[in-house]
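Example for tutorial group B:
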């Protein structure tokens, strides 16, 4: 018995070509010695709250790169 519902069928492929996809990549900023960075968000990257592509999540050291859906 299969309790997992099918969420994708081959017949859905045509509709995927019409969809838009945005990507999100998260990473942790590290110090040269390998420890998690305790420095503030680099000013050269712009304001982390309003930057369209570079943001931080719940921690200052966690960097998110977010692309618009295209």
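The residue assignment follows.
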């Amino acid at each position: 018995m299969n309790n997992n519902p099918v969420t994708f069928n081959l017949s859905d492929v045509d509709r995927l070509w019409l969809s838009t996809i945005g990507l999100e990549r998260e990473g942790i900023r590290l110090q040269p010695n390998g420890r998690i960075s305790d420095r503030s968000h680099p000013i050269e990257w712009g304001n982390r709250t309003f930057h369209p592509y570079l943001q931080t999540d719940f921690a200052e050291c966690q960097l998110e790169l977010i692309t618009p859906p295209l």
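The chain has a mean pLDDT of 80. Compare this with the pattern of hydrophobic and polar residues in the output above.
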